[in-house]
Fold this protein.
Amino acid sequence: MARSFVIGVAVLAAAICWSRAASSHETVNTTVLFDREIVAILNRHCVMCHAEHGPSFPLETYEQVWLQKRKVSAAVLARHMPPWSAFAGYGRFANENVVTLRESQFIVSWMEGLGPRNAGKVFTNTSSASGSTPLAVRAHVDLDAWPLGEPDLARDLPAVSVDPAGADDVRRVVVDLGLTSDRRVRAFEYLPGSRRVVRAAVFTVQETGQWIGSWTPWYGFMKLPQSAAYRVPAGAHVVAEIHYQPAKERVVDRGRIGLFFDPEASRKVSDLVLDAVGTKRLQAETTLAADTTLLAMRPDAWPGIKSVEVSARRVDGSAEVLLFAKDFSPWLTPYILAEPVLLRQGTRLVVTAYGDVTTMKTTISTVGTGD
């Protein structure tokens, strides 16, 4: 009897284990939905690069994200993606692309909760007369639209042929703006011809050397504060330094630039360039001769640069770190301040960098009080 009881228990236990192993699905244990929280995160941070015609694998549909969900979660938690090198707490930037703690928790919860979709369906307790199936929700970005609207002046850049290669490529092209008189430019934007191969772009005025904007896949324009403008002389040319990533096949890129004018702008934007020098630890500083407003910082963080800090040492003895960045990506992003920072006369601006190089240039866009 005892032996029969033991055998019965063993059979029952085996049956339970077998049925559990053969279960075709588990219970979803998250309220985070692809069609709600995840799509919103993709639209804010991801599809500028991860689109069908973008530089990396697409993350637009539920199926695409489902197949890459572990890779996406790991990259977000490690801060490898989306690419942004500045550390929170040291300045606020208009072009920062940072997944918040809440957003990263949504991503992890969705992945560990078996990735529920929701398919865009909302229960209304009514029947549909048409019986049609709603379209699947997907992430989307309009890659062909001017971010700031139709510009006052648009020019095509010369075509560039990007051939299959094993390394990044940098091309320098020049375009004549066709200006017959001096103009005041309040904003600048760029549309690449092929987002599949364009990684980053930097734009300067050939005649003055003035930096007027940079482009990264998630932020493609430079908009100045009210009454501030770049001075662009008659007959000026724009120099575009375009960084290409390796192409899988031959691609012809023909981008466009757009300029917005403000004839009433009274404050001139100019560049303050600091050349840091040293061995392992590089440093540069300057003392401001007048009240100065900072708009953006653009350190040339080439390979070999490990970290960069830009700080302001005020006359009253206080100090503020305006930028601290490390682990730089190859996107060459500028750091455009969300709110301009006013520094009084006598303030020392200090750039400190660490790396395996001996020189590094940092360009700081500033604006004075008037002409």
Remarks:
- The longest helix spans residues 2-21.
- DSSP finds four helices and 19 strands in the chain.
- The radius of gyration is 27 Å.
- The mean pLDDT is 87.
